[in-house]
Amino acid sequence: MERIGYSRKIEDPAFKKYLKNTNRWAGMFGVVLALIAFVGFYIAGELGIDGVENPQGMMIGAGVGGMFLLITLYSIVSRKKSRTWDGVVIDKKVKNKTRRDDDDHVTHYTVYEVIIKEDNGKKHEIRVENDDTVFNYYKVGDRIRHHAGLNSYEKYDKTGDTIIFCAACGDINNIEDQTCHRCKCPLLN
Ligand SMILES: [Zn+2]
User: Fold this and answer.
1) Residue 142 gets which letter from DSSP?
2) Residues surrounding ion ligand 1 at CB below 5 Å
3) Which alpha helices (DSSP H) does 107-159 contain, by range?
4) Quick one: residue 141, left, alpha or beta (phi over 0 = left, psi -120 to 50 = alpha)?
5) Is 0.70 topped by the overall pTM?
6) 171 CA distance to ligand 1 centroid (A)?
7) How far is the CA of 165 from the centre of ligand 1 (A)?
8) What is the span of the domain harbouring residue 41?
9) Do 87 and 170 belong together in one domain?
10) CA within 20 to 30 Å of 111's CA: 34, 65, 87, 136, which one?
11) Which CATH number covers residue 89?
C-alpha cells in the first residue's frame, strides 16, 4: 500500500479532545502539588519540624507551591503556543557520552539525534537516550510535519514503514492499525 502525503485524519476531533484533557490533567496535577507543598510546610511550621516556625513555614510553602504552579502554567502555555510547521530531516548524529554523578559513579549512554530544518530555517532536534527506534525511523531528506501541540513529527512519505508513532501520545504502533493502542487517537497513516 502506498502511504504518501500528510494524513487528513489530523482533523479528527479526538486530537483536540486529547489536548484539552492533557492540559486539564496537567493543571489539576500542578494545583494538587502546590496545595500539598503549602499545607506540608504550614504543618511543619506549626509543629516546628527541622526548626521551621510559622510564618516562615507558610512562606516556604507558598514559594514552593508557587513554583509548581508556574511550571504547570508554562507547560500549558507552551503547548498552546506550539504551531504546525513543515520541515526536512537534514542530519542524524549518534553521540557516546558519559555522566558522572555525585558519588563519582560513571554511566555510559548514547544520545541519538535527528536534526530537522523547518522551512523558515529554524532548526529542531529530536533527542533520545539509549534507544535508536526514532533515530532509525527518520532518514536524512525525509519531509516531515510537526502538528501544533502534539508530540510527533509526521513523515510525508511513509512507504515501506512497519511502525508509526502516535501523534498524540507518541507511542509506537503498527502502521496497519487505525487507532493508537494506548490513547485511542487515530493514527496518521
Ligand atoms: Zn496514542
Assistant:
1) -
2) 166, 168-169, 171, 180, 182-183
3) 133-137
4) left
5) yes
6) 6
7) 8
8) 14-81
9) yes
10) 87
11) 2.40.50.660
